[in-house]
Amino acid sequence: MNDGGIKNTGAWAEVGQARKHESSELHVRGGATFTDDIAELSGTLHAALGLSSRAHARIAGIDLAPVAASAGVVAVLTVADIPGLNDCGPIIHDDPILADGLVQYVGQPVFIVVADTHDNARRAARLAQVTYEDLPAILTPQAARAAQSYVLPPMRLTRGDAAAAFARAPHTVKGELYVGGQEQFYLEGQIAYAIPGEDRGMHVYSSTQHPSEMQHVIAHALGLHSHHVTVECRRMGGGFGGKESQSALWAAAAAIAAVATSRPVKLRADRDDDMLVTGKRHCFHYEYDVGYDDDGRILAARVDMVTRAGYSADLSGPVATRAVCHFDNAYYLSDVDIRAACGKTNTQSNTAFRGFGGPQGAIAIEYVLDEIARNLGRDALDIRCLNFYGKVDRNVTPFGQTIVDNVIPELVAELEAGSDYRARRAAVEDYNRTSPVLKKGLALTPLKFGIAFNVTHLNQAGALVHVYVDGSILVNHGGTEMGQGINTKVMQVVAHELGVGLERVRATATNTSKVSNTSATAASTGADLNGKAAQDAAGKIRARLSDFAARQYGGEASEVRFAAGTVFVAGLALPFEEVVAKAYLARVQLWSDGFYATPGLHWDPKTMNGRPFSYFAYGAAVSEVVIDTLTGEWKLLRVDALYDAGRSLNPAIDIGQVEGAFIQGMGWLTTEELWWNPAGELMTHAPSTYKIPAVSDCPEDFRVTLFDNANVEDSIHRSKAVGEPPLLLPFSVFFAIRDAISSVGGHRVNPPLNAPATSEAILDAIGFVEARA
To answer: What are the strands of the beta sheet with 572-575, ordered from one edge?
Structure first.
């Protein structure tokens, strides 16, 4: 730690401070450069994709002459014009860039139009005359299960003897649950700008969470080596997982068009095309069977999950794996049989979304515990607390990882007290007794979320740090900035390591020619991995400067301290820039690379056992809602959230991430409904038909606090990830709504509430309760 160590610098620190986002002023003033803002080179063309209008069909004939004859069109490209591999699948090569005789969902790209303007390209793309031979289409995960239609072999995790445990259990609860998907709805849509260079070089500006994967896909599509292709991303206007693998289609198509025309080509998707083409959060259908004792402790659990994977594998396998590994959430399950299948459907190929299967896995056990509590006439919080993981026993997950950092009992107890949960529970019951139409609901739900990529080798990162002669510092790393503040946190880490203020440090665009073979900025690992890599690089420079200062001024290198823009050596306090300038004259290397690989991870995908996570993040939230039993409308009145960010690198950014994740997760569970018509066409593909939460949906009373808890693992400054885990906090909203519905029948009937809990779904559940109360 750099605490200064001399005079008044003992308390100095750059990490742990609430600093503003490094691009906040640029965002507010409109000065932040996104991919579409990059000044276009002379001769730039614009591309659009021609899309399938059938869910599953063979292309019997296609006439592109009207497209080619349209105003401004320069080229029309089909699969025959792809120089290399027609594939953009991230793991399995089952995802063509352009359809080759077979279309598998409405919106699948069939050809590329290149024109002089964006509007001309988009208009021309609608003019193709295509005839189809329709084939049977599978549209739902239930239909995929019935047809045994999967993109990957089903997976299964077992522990103990579930059958024997069920036989001993005095009570069981059995049922089904459906949880819908979710559109990422990033503010900036999919976009790529490809610029051909000399000697077959290609520079692609891509709005992507995974520049290295874009580099590989483009190189394969063009029949080139990776060193021919540079992919760059300064920032995204949101990603949420939707730009992890699925930015590849757009980047590859733009590069293919640039090669075909020998001119720069920009491909920017309009919102409706973006939503029609790209995959979303996987919807899940569950069949569950859980045994429990008289107190409500779970004795056996069996669940069969099937997802709507879409027409190709994409990242469905890892998503389903994480769902399996998060079915337990914060609870010890002794005897389990957990199954998951990735249903192949004739819909968009679903992909990563913030949480990456974790929320879908965890919500099922929360639904079950909610039912157990109602069956026993107990408060659901008491049943949850009874089933929490233990500290020294009952502390091993179904997949074999021992939990060594369990703080969920303390965290929930703190939230319960701080939110006045018990008093508010009594107040809600009093209100409902005298209110025949409006009903309130209250719920407290916890979370436990594993941090690391499921695939062990992805848990690595690199960084470059340059210290210039004037004492200014430049950092480049493999993470991508999508508004979450990774650059700000990495800059703070570097500033802290070198003992300077944040204003001295600048972060540059992620670029595959600077840091190679990077992992996606995903799985909540961005700050963990890249922060450690940047710390490693800055630490090497600090060590060199310490050696130089000791030689120059006396004393031991180990006693040199860097803090508050000052170097403390041999009783002297020297400005950082002065020491740097003298070190340069002495030919000291003032730049360095850094690398980090998360230790201790291992995973066997066949047995589904191992230690896939470096650590767990914890949290809990209390939500209070009111519903109108006549219309199904509802309002979120108050939220109290407590989140375990470890020793937060930047509390301001972390609290903002918790708030944003909460509202986004609430949208998934309440208002954001994806609906396909019987022909397989996504009808909710625009802001007019797909409803994300608005400002008016946010609670007027929104209390977010960070839990005081240092990470037991050697994470970057003992912090914890904050990107994905908080998305589970709005489970409390869903179960508060269910609690309010339940009050209609005196809490004697379990409402069959699926997600999203739209007004229609709420009314259906109320009708069910009223009919059986």
So the answer is: 561-563, 566-569, 572-575
- The answer to whether residue 8 scores a pLDDT higher than 60 is no
β-sheet with 191-196: strand ranges across: 73-77, 109-115, 45-51, 265-268, 191-196, 202-206, 229-233, 510-511
Type of residue numbered 163: A
Integer Rg of the chain from CA: 27
Q: How far apart are the first and last CA of the chain?
A: 62
Q: DSSP string spanning 579-635?
A: HHHHHHHTT---EEEEEEE-TT-EEETTTTEEE--SEEEEEEEEEEEEEETTT--EE
Across the chain, mean pLDDT equals 97
CA distance 74 to 385: 65
The neighbour count for residue 701, using CB atoms within 10 Å, is: 10
Which pLDDT value is given to residue 37? 98
Q: Give the C-alpha separation, 771 to 773, whole Å.
A: 6
Let me know: does 545 contact 737? Beta carbons within 8 Å: no
| Residue where the block lists tokens 């549209």 | 139
**Closest Cα to residue 298, out of 435, 131, 109, 166?**
166
Residues 99, 59 contacting (CB under 8 angstroms) = yes
Report the predicted TM-score, pTM, of the whole model to 2 decimal places: 0.97
Question: How far apart, in whole angstroms, are the C-alpha atoms of residue 142 and residue 677?
Answer: 16
Consecutive H or E run containing 569: strand 566-569
The tokens describing 500, both together, are 């300077």
* Among 284, 395, 399, CA closest to 338: 399
Sheet holding 57-63, edge to edge: 102-103, 57-63, 129-134
Residue 3 predicted with pLDDT over 50 = no
Q: Which residues, 6 or more positions from 462, have their beta carbon under 8 angstroms from its beta carbon?
A: 477, 478, 515, 516, 517, 518, 533, 593, 594, 595, 596
- Who's near 68: CB < 8 A, 6+ residues apart? 76
Do 452 and 532 form a contact (C-beta atoms < 8 A)? no
Give yes or no for residue 6 having a pLDDT over 50.
no
Residues annotated as catalytic are 724
Q: How many CA atoms lie within 13 A of 286 on its CB side?
A: 33
Count of CB atoms within 10 A of residue 419's CB?
23
Question: How does pLDDT run across 476-528, given as a tens digit for each residue?
Answer: 999 999 999 999 999 999 999 999 999 999 999 999 999 999 999 999 999 99
545 within 8 A of 582, measured Cβ to Cβ: no
- For residues 609 and 325, give the distance between their C-alpha atoms in angstroms, rounded to a whole number: 9
Q: For residue 5, is pLDDT > 80? A: no
